[in-house]
Amino acid sequence: MPEGHTLHRLARLHQRRYAGSAVEVTSPQGRFPAAEVDGRVLLRAEAHGKHLFHVYGPDATVHVHLGLYGTFTEHPHPVTEPVGQVRMRVVGPTHWTDLRGPTRCEVLTDGEVAALRGRLGPDPLRRDARPGLVFARVAASRRSIGVLLMDQAVIAGVGNVYRAEVLFRHGLHPLTPGHRVDRALWDAIWADLVLLMRDGVKVGRIDTVRPEHLPAATGRAPREDRHGGEVYVYRRTGLPCLVCGTPVAMAVLAARNLYWCPVCQPE
DNA sequence: GATCTATGTAGAT
DNA sequence: TCTACCTAGATCG
Fold first, then answer.
1. Are residue A19 and residue A140 in the same domain, yes or no?
2. Nucleotides of B strand lying within 7 Å of any protein CB atom
3. Is the CB of A101 under 7 A from strand C?
4. A85 DSSP 8-state letter
5. Which of A3, A46, A165, A230 is catalytic?
6. Which residues are within 8 A (CB) of A187 and not within 5 positions of it... i.e. 6 or more apart?
7. pTM to 2 decimals?
């Protein structure tokens, strides 16, 4: 679930369901200090990159990072007994939500929130994002574009799926050094990330394949990936590239699986 | 039922 | 570069 689009989608949902109301906040599992915000009015829910914030007031913001496994479930009333390890439960006027398995779930002061957000790069899903700041970092770097796109301090919210797919869509090999990416190419990549990630927020999954760009004669059609979307290369190791038919390559880079088409994305 | 894998990150080495 | 964290779905037998 969790690349940036998931968190923005959750923020939007939580804003609609819970903001403006006093909510009951508990930690059935006991590993989250829920009493600090229990019974208070949720003022606002927002996301920056893969981080979710529930703002209750000055120095009272719940910060959630889902990590690899974290999930929220959402239900209408009535409220039922917790099942399994529930880190945080939020009960609003009409609905309630359970959080399981997050990497982080904690109450932060405004200073701590500012420090955290200061460590995050621009987020393609935020209107206040400045893509030029990202380009400056990319253009000055000898690290590969594949590594830079995953560095949350450079650009926030991109994960392994969006990385693989956006590089494919621009014919860029993941190991291309950042300083080889020119401004026009970067602007196109950023615009594409905005498009893809906004679509992800809207539909709740990652779809990146443009059917009109597939060779009609081959009869190749995108298959739904296990993550629920339609993609060109992510987790398609050894399968024929949807555009040229070459087997999709895979390698491990900085402890993450990297996927690309050796022909459509030449080194 | 056991085992494997993952859309992530921090901290140790 | 490695390990721990911690959960669920897919896959294996």
1. no
2. 6-10
3. yes
4. -
5. A3
6. A131, A135
7. 0.94
